[in-house]
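Recall the central idea of this unit: under ordinary conditions, the amino acid sequence of a chain determines the structure it adopts. In this exercise we apply that idea directly, starting from the sequence alone.
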Amino acid sequence: MRVLITAGPTRERIDAVRFLSNRSTGKMGYALAEAAHSMGHEVTLVSGPVALAAPEGVKLIRVESAREMAEAVLAAAPEMDLIVMAAAVADYRPVTVFPGKLKKQPGNLMIELERTEDILASLGARKRPGQILAGFAAETEELLANASGKLAKKNLDWIAANDVSRSDIGFGSPDNAVTLLAKDGRRFEFGPAPKRQIAEAILNAILGEVNSSL
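Accordingly, the structure predicted from this sequence is:
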């Protein structure tokens, strides 16, 4: 299968030296890419800025902003059999990017933000017959309710919900625990376990469904 996976955060520039971002390290997405490659699939990994080595045998596309990730993902998506959106894409970016370094001034600074591209919703709207689309829901409260809503609203086939408020499985941890929800109502619980094992469990569940339909 041709598999597209996203990983890591995005960076939304404020000025030449500052940006908005989040705590994602990309470890889960990279584990998914490595696991998919080890299963014999052709893998493309679109990665935000991370401090991780490129997975062996995987086509790596490096991006920085949400706009760049959207362009890379939407360009590659039509040819993919399975897409797993594990990246923590910023929801907002500054409307104005200041040239050079913004110097400190007396008083407060107000930065107006605008919505970034909703890549997952765009993929759901464009999903071709037979293509499998999976997302992640990194939540701090109402985990399953928020994940279920995202699954339906964005026309996903699967969503992996994980609680990023927990230090033992959240951002930066080597381990994870997810609840994998399918659009047909099935539910799987994986972990806590190393992220590579979680990645294999997620892919086995998804690909098991694919194989049973062949």
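The helical segments are 27-38, 66-76, 119-126, 143-153, 195-212.
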